Sequence to fold (268 residues):
Amino acid sequence: MRHAAILALACWLGAAPAVAREPVDAYPDIAAAYWVEVDDTPLWAGKADQALPIASLTKLMTALVAVEHGDLDAVATVSRTAAAETGSRLGLRAGERIRRSDLLAALLVRSANDACRALADDIGGDEPRFIARMNARAAELGMARTRFANACGHDDDDNRSSVRDLAVLARAVLAQPVLAADAARTEFAFATLDGRRYTMRSTNALLGSLDGARGLKTGWTPGAGRCLVAFVERDGRRVLAILLHAPDRWWDSVGVIELAFAQPRAPR
Fold:
């Protein structure tokens, strides 16, 4: 079910599946795997436990490890490996000095791989040691179908997760106020300690266009396709939607999010 069909369901709410204790696969065509929950209660999911490539959704764990490590006011020096990162990037230069907090915001707002790698290198000492921290944290969170092979989400057979695991990760990220605030930014600007300025806009098209959208992370690689973790708040309710390898992540995520908000509130 795609595009007009999902929007038609959003208009005719009687066709929406009822809330169930376990998520049901109501919309199998919107993504290779997906997850939708309201107020931490799962509604709908497809292939919830299948490990798939997740592209830059990987950066949610990078961000979580960085915040839990602390000392975000510390200054990182951009390594040559970070400056040489490919894909989405700011164009950081080797030797530039940047506060960790600014690198953190840049990896969440713009999904910048050079900022991501600079942060991982600085905190871990090098990327392999930082990746070890990422995998250890995933194990602590019970993310049994998740394995990280790099800090930024490049295609790798060993860099995978499931939508159920990503929901766990998203909740952990949202519990960190600095990460929730950065993920909700529509734009961001900072200056290095050397005086060079960077400005950027969010990769998340839902911010500023969907009522209540608060982030959380986008991703794309050839292997993972278009991915999205979307978090929306309205009138005291929270919807989390996760799509992996989604043909039309913006249109279809809006459809299932609207349907989720239309569900009756759970009795207290």
